[in-house]
Design goal:
about 280 residues, mainly beta, Porin, two-stranded antiparallel ribbon, 1 helix, 17 strands
Length: about 280
């Protein structure tokens, strides 16, 4: 049943990708025509470059414009020491996130199940992960010393295969903030999050997270970032995980972006190394 639900969701996502807005201007170039976006509702103009929530861990404070659809996807490879000279490796794709602007400053977020593969040096596992559904709500723009703010919520839905599902609905709440550092184009942003996660034995524990990212413009279409993020479990059986990662994002045009990232674990609980790449589209 889990695989059937995942297949249905992917078919819906694919159908949404075929929707394109109406032209922004009348054929004679005189008066702008209202753009028609998802589900036939009014669509805001998209003159500015898209803002994505990948490849870094930190979520942005901006929702997708009203009536627009943004699809972000990619893949990640992870490697970690498994002890005894062995290494654990994992791969996950397509990490697809569907973002839909339902009203100004508010978006629906649907995370499609990904295919996951793991090899701990003694056995291999593969299957589909859980899907997720959530929202992003803009709370305010940057003003003076106050950063822009947003609230995100998500529910992890247990649609995955047995090896990759928690078998429970797991909620997450995130507060995102961002601050542009003047005309230089540099920016700083961060997240603070809390999750309630169930493990394979059916027990539930709390996990907190935080991040701090520096955005660096390189050219008109190429940007870079450097970031710290960590997970802190309220569970006697696990300690914190600390990571550093950096990456690039390249705008093909205002509605298409390519990205790349590479990261390292900063303590023994964290994975040793990970890397990934992705692409994002806005319609």
């Amino acid at each position: 049943m889990h695989n059937t639900l995942a297949l249905k969701f992917l078919m819906i996502s694919a159908s949404l990708m075929t929707i394109h807005p109406a032209p922004a201007f009348a054929q004679d170039g005189s008066e702008p025509e209202p753009a028609i976006g998802i589900m036939g509702i009014h669509a805001d103009p998209i003159d500015e470059p898209l803002v994505t929530d990948r490849p870094d861990f930190t979520e942005s404070t901006l929702a997708v414009p009203l009536g627009r659809v943004q699809i972000e996807a990619g893949l990640t490879f992870t490697r970690d020491g498994a002890g005894g000279g062995r290494h654990a490796e994992s791969f996950e794709a397509p990490e697809a996130l569907l973002r839909v602007g339902l009203i100004r400053g508010f978006e629906l977020r649907i995370g499609a199940p990904s295919y996951a593969w793991e090899d701990d040096g003694s056995a291999e596992l593969d299957g589909l992960t859980d899907m997720g559904i959530g929202f992003k709500l803009e709370l305010g723009e940057q003003s003076g010393a106050r950063p822009s703010l947003a609230l995100l919520g998500e529910l992890s839905i247990p649609t995955g295969d047995r090896e990759f599902t928690s078998d429970e609905v797991d909620p997450t709440v995130i507060v995102a903030w961002a601050y542009d550092l003047g005309e230089s184009g540099w920016s700083v942003a961060g997240n603070v999050g809390a999750s309630s996660i169930s493990d394979s034995s059916g027990d539930r524990f709390e996990e907190f997270s935080s991040s701090l990212a520096l955005g660096i413009p390189l050219t008109g279409s190429l940007g870079a970032y450097a970031e710290y993020y960590g997970f802190y479990r309220h569970d006697a059986g696990a300690g914190p995980e600390h990571y550093f990662n950096a990456g690039l994002n390249h705008l093909i045009d205002n509605n298409t972006q390519l990205d790349f990232r590479v990261g390292l674990g900063l303590n023994g609980n964290a994975d040793d190394f990970f890397t990934g790449a992705g692409v994002s589209f806005r319609f």
